[in-house]
Structures are given as structure tokens and as C-alpha cells.
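Posting this for the archive.
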Amino acid sequence: MSKIDISIIIRTKNEEKWINHCLKMIFDQNFKNFEIIIIDNNSTDATLEIAKRFKIKKIFNIKNFLPGKAINIGVRKSIGEFVVCLSAHCIPKNKNWLSNLYKNISKNKKVAGVYGRQIPVSFSNPIDKRDLLITFGLDKRIQVKDNFFHNANSIFKKEIWKKFPFDSKVKNVEDRLWGKQIIKAGYNIIYEPEAIVYHHHGIHQNNAPERASSIVSIIEKFEKDRIIKLPTTLKPENLNIVAVLPFSINSKYYRDNKSLLLKTINEINESKFIKKIYLVSEKNIIRNNSIKFIDRIKNKISTSISIDELLFKSLKIIEKNKDYPDSIIFINYDYVLRPVKLLDKIILEAQYSGCDTVFPAQIDYGHYWLKSESGNFVQTDSSLNSRNIRKPTYKALYGLGCLTSSHIIRNKKIIGGKIGIIPIDNINNSFRLIDLKKSRILKSFFFSKIQKSK
């Protein structure tokens, strides 16, 4: 076995949303001589399942988690001369991240540790954006008196750690306390701004959002080159997004249904970001190698189960076949007039706004009443003002295309996490085949539109 120079310690706790992107970028580094050690704090989601896809050999569970304690355990399990600490939700910006950390410490006896720059993503909140942009600047510096150090993105020498391990009892700032010991002992700390990671949340949480928004808007205006919107692995074109398209052959409207199914498949194929289509049906009626088939009968997916359950079962089947979607977009074929490029709009909104679920919704200014458990009617909108001043409600149109992150679907939910909505103001986009069956005139009108669009 060749000598390992660097051991990378990643501390995890329910990080299934981020760990795949983090590990992808680590394994894409130009510097290859490393091992990865995961110290997990009793994750209850798919964090470890995803990590094991990368064939990581050293995965350890820790009870009674404390940050310094977790790092110390990781270091004891390591074989590298140098140790990197990286948060599971930090994503290296490029292939040079690891080498940029390493070059500052590998031959400099005076340097005990190096920490790198952290930048926000497009959907980080204003407080976090402000804190990261102000704290982690563009100038490299050698710290002789300043003991600031940050273990979300750092490297240190194991030899020095043996003399100065991290405090195993504190609940936070173990990195700052370590830095204080190091500086006091006469060592230096280096800040390397070229060792960059994306970090979606910041390092301070106590200030007013309004003031933070103001500061961020100024920074974004005058320092545009510092605002990189998304890590490479989170950009829509680099994600594994698949469409799940349920269909049943057991319908008296089979011919019309199949016509709309073929139309929907063409619309999905026009997307720049959807990688595959999975047809969930009793029979594979589409003979096309690019469309994957999920057998309803074989997999016991009845037509009466909820969409939550259907997507959950579909995801399990897809992953069993070694396909690991970042997100699934659920599409119902029987929406007659889907807006052009809607599917890509949904995907772009999800990624650049950091949403876990995005769907279209019809803008509605109507007045609605609900019947309470006591039998009384309750008005949902007390205002009879003009619609120019009234706030609209949004009628969800999930079947037009509902994108959901896989980590939400694993909890048997199609809707969850941070929600995004694409407003639809054309009522024609809300019509389904089942609605048209009630009116021959409407059916004739819409199907003539469909034929013209082909």
C-alpha cells in the first residue's frame, strides 16, 4: 500500500442532502493521495448509505457527540501525516482545493494549521452571506498573534496535534481554542483564500436580517466576482434529475390517455436537465430504450396509492438499479397544455433558490369557504377588496411537474423542506383530460391545440 499523505475527516449528522456533492468534489481533486474518515453522529437519514457508494472504508459512529471529541477520534483512526477537517455540507469549489491547503503546510515547520476560504451559495440567507463574505477575504495571511482557525475547511499536522489535541469537552469553538494553544506555543496559522469551499450557512446567527440584507446587496453590487452562485455539482446540468411518469393501461379512455402520454414524453425530452424518464405502468407500452420501465404489478404499485408512496417505491427501485437521483420530478400526463419550458423553470428555481420542493400553482383571486368540524362555514379571505390590492391564493398543480429532492421522498413525502412555487396565470394550463371529458366542446378545442403543437 502506498503512503497516504492526507487523512480527510468529515463529521456527519443527517447530511444526505449534501454528502454526495461533498464527496464528489473530494474524489475529483488533482491531489489523490488521501483517505477519507467519516465520524457519524447517529444519522437517521441516508447519509451513510450515500457515503458507502464511494467505497469509503473508515466510517465510525460516535455517541454523545462533541466537535473536538469527534475530530480526535478521527485523527486516532487516521494514517496520514496531515489531517484535513471538512464539514459534510461544505463543497470544494474546484479541483485545486486540497492541493492549495497542502502546499502551505507540507514543508513549513513553523506552520501548524491552515484554513481556507468559505463562500455562500445563491440561496444562503443574507446573514450567512454577509458573515462569510466579510470574514473570509481575498488576501492570504500568516497569523502570528491572531488565533482564529476554522475546522469547516482546514488542515493541520498530526505531529503537532499529538501535543495539542482538540478540547473534547466543549460544545463549540474547539477550533478557536486549538488556535489559541498553537499561537501561544509559537507556531503560525495560515489563511489560504485559494482553498475555497461553498458553505450554505454562516458562522454567526445573532444579527438582524434587515441589516444583513442591506450589507449583502452592497457587496453583491460592487464585488460581483466574489459571488459565485452555485458549486459545480449543484448546477442543474450536473445533477441527476429523473422524471417519474405514472400511467395505467386500464382505462376506457386509453387511446386519448396514450396520446397525451406521448405528448408528455416529448415535453420531458425537451428539458435540458432531466436525465431519464421512468414510466410506471402495468405494461411497457413505449418501446424506447431511453425510457426505463417500472412494472406496477411486479412491484405492487397499485393505482390507488398516494403519490407520496408511489415516489417512495419508485425511488427504492431506481436506486436498487444503481441509479441515484438527486431529485425526482413527478409528472402527470393528463395535463393537456403544459407551459413551454416549464419543467426547466421548475428545476432552475429549485437549484438557485435552494428549494427542496418546487411546483407550479395557479394564481387565484377567488373567495373560498371551508366547512369546519363543527359544521360551520369559515371564510378564508375576509377581504372583498379589488384583486389589485388583494393577496392571491395559489392552487397547486403538482401534475404539471413537481420536483422533489430525494431526501424528502425517502421520508415518503412529495412536499417538504423549503418550498418554491412557479406562478401560473393562464387557466388553460390547469385543465386535465378528466375535466375535458365533461365537455365535448372543450375536448375538441384542446385536442385541436395539441395536434397543432405536434
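The radius of gyration is 26 Å. The chain has 14 helices and 19 strands.
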